[in-house]
Write a structure and sequence with these properties.
The protein is α+β, with helices and mostly antiparallel strands. Helices cover 19% and strands 40% of the residues. Strands 1-2-3-4-5 form a five-stranded antiparallel β-sheet, covered by helices on one side. The model has no long low-confidence stretch (mean pLDDT 85).
Length: 78
């Protein structure tokens, strides 16, 4: 399920992303599409969103992960 595009601003740059799979209370994982690449974010035991399956040439900046996860958390009331 890809929804309409969402936008966040991080370090004075706009990022457009799509939510591929939304989080729920049972499944605290988010799959997003950003710049044509799929990323999975999970909520760890410290209540911080982290990227799963890191690759050197594909990893997101921690601040961008935080910005996107905050926007999604507000949207889905997690």
């Amino acid at each position: 399920m890809i929804e309409f595009p969402l936008r966040v601003n991080y370090n004075q740059q706009d990022y457009i992303y799509y939510i591929i799979s939304a989080p729920s209370k049972k499944n605290l994982a988010i799959e997003i599409l950003l710049d044509g690449k799929s990323y999975t974010l999970i909520l760890n035991e410290d209540k911080l969103w982290m990227e799963v399956g890191l690759e050197e040439n594909r990893s997101l900046e921690p601040g961008l992960i935080l910005t996107i996860s905050r926007a999604i958390t507000l949207r889905y009331h997690i």
